[in-house]
Amino acid sequence: MLNRTTKNITTKYPEKVLQFGTGVLLRGLIDYFIDKGNKAGVYDGSVVMVKTTGPDVSEFTNQDNLYTISVRGLENGQTVEEDIVVDCISRTLSTKTHWEEILKTAENADIQLVVSNTTEAGLQYVEENILESCPESFPGKLTAWLHKRFMTNQAETLVIPTELIVNNGGILKEIVYKHVAANNLGDSFLVWLNQKVKFCSSLVDRIVPGKPNEEETNKLFDKIGYEDTLIIKAEVYRLWAIEGEGIEDLLGFAEADNGVKIAKNIEKYRELKLRLLNAPHTLLCGMAYLSGFRLVKEALCDEMMEKYITILMLTELGPAIPLNLDQKTTHRYGREVMDRFRNPYLEHQWLSITLQYTLKMKARAIPLLLNYYETFDSVPQYFARCFAAYLLFMKVTKEENGKYYGEHEGEEYQINCDSAPYFKSVWEHNSAHEVVSLVLRNQEIWGCDLTTLKGFESNVENHLSNMMMCGVKDVVSALNVYA
Mannitol dehydrogenase C-terminal domain location, by residue (predicted)? Predict the structure, then answer.
């Protein structure tokens, strides 16, 4: 079992970070950066990790709060295999059983950074008395902790949420201020918050699947020479983009890894992730699945599909990002994304990406389509093929117990999308030609009429017709044959 004896670890760092959340993303990304900074000698701090979901922290204390990150993947086309013992967690406390101890950390002036990942649902306002007992919500807990700090040492504090919400720092700040007003915590506390506490928005990006499967785990234990019940997998790619100015001194660990980006504005990183990672995933999931691929990495092993994805990303999606990013930036990020897609160590299912397919298309892909037309006033042919494949994937062939299913080569698949009932009706009562027209002009779905985009409707219709006659993969393969 992993502990300080088995790894001969004796280093003790002063506590400098309070972390709300014990999940794999925080441990595989944020704590990874802090640990790396310690080992590089550019930081000297440990993390008080707070569990918000239950009272039992024995899984961490039994291992002296040590755990292994098994980093596997590709970087610049080269295979990376690295097993890292993270030793930056000083202790793990539960809000259920250690609330007073957690509050007491507010008295420690060395703790100047608070981070969180409590899921998107965690950044919600809940009306509650935050000083009576441990608050229910994370913002309530944070407000109580900040109030304790105000009453004790008033040291400067940096708060960086990592929940996957745009402007997460601003949203959290607004909720904290709402708690201050609702609990009558006083104007002097509000003045201190304004002067001494900075809320910074951030964006995190790293695939951390969690614990490897049993077979992988046993192989890893044999390789590293000890057992670790907390071992987690992570891809090589890592990004923590933090929006703020004058905060570098509190984030000394950033010097150890260029995956930490501190900038006045992080919109560039958000757009790159949304438009060159999330959008290709969304646009390609139906097409890849109907082409016979089940895993993302399988599609990247197919020469024609890899070429298709590359052209889609670099010639249609990249130039359509609405920030006028230079080609060098988009191409470099695109190459990183391709390495992530072809990672041989990840079992990423295309079908899982089709969850809420329509909503993702609207949020991630359609803004790129509109901007492409605004920039080039022509049909993005690869995008049009992806849209045709989306329509075909959404062809409901069966409804059972409130669930909707499509069919591909005799195999049923679930259409896990809120728009499935709409597509069931559209496909049942209309020809493929009519389906294209009806769906494209549905402003309730897209927020605009996509038939107004010159040539897009006819191209989607032709691609869909060809897919229904010849198969999706054959249409994908016809890279230079445009309708």
Answer: 265-467
What integer is the mean pLDDT of 266-292? 95
Q: How far is CA 390 from the centre of its chain?
A: 23
Reading the block at residue 186, the tokens are: 């006083």
pTM: 0.87
Burial class (CB in 10 A: 0-12, 13-18, 19+), 148: middle
Please choose, from the candidates 359, 277, 269, the residue with its C-alpha nearest in 3D space to the C-alpha of residue 317: 277
Domains belonging to the chain, first-starting first, are: 15-263 (3.40.50.720), 267-477 (1.10.1040.10)
| φ and ψ at residue 48, rounded to 5 degrees | -90, 110
Sheet holding 411-414, edge to edge: 398-400, 403-408, 411-414
